[in-house]
Design brief:
Elements lengths: L2 H20 L12 H14 L7 H22 L7 H4 L10
Length: 98
């Protein structure tokens, strides 16, 4: 299996785990992600999968695929505050003139 395929399978697992963990209030259908989430991941990773095998572009596609999968995993572990903006007390209005 290629890097893009493994990244996509991991992405599907993370999407499913996130929906199951979120419960019925998280905008799911019977505790599973809405089909559009699976379709969007299939389309994105499918396009990356068109890179010719063994080329430099395949390596770039694999890194990009795993980057998006890791980003989804990071959002799974802390969806309310993924970058810790609330803890630092930063505000978009900070430093602006009144």
């Amino acid at each position: 299996m290629g890097a893009v395929m493994l990244a996509w399978l991991a992405e599907v697992g993370i999407l499913t785990a996130r929906a199951v963990k979120g419960g019925p209030d998280s905008g799911t259908i019977a505790g599973l992600p809405v089909p559009s989430e699976y379709l969007a991941s299939f389309a994105f990773y499918g396009v990356l999968g068109f890179a010719p095998k063994g080329s430099g572009m395949a390596k770039v596609a694999g890194v990009l695929a795993w980057g998006f999968t890791i980003a989804t995993a990071m959002n799974f572990f802390n969806p309310a505050d993924p970058v810790g903006a609330k803890a630092s007390g930063s505000s978009s209005a900070k430093g602006q003139l009144a």
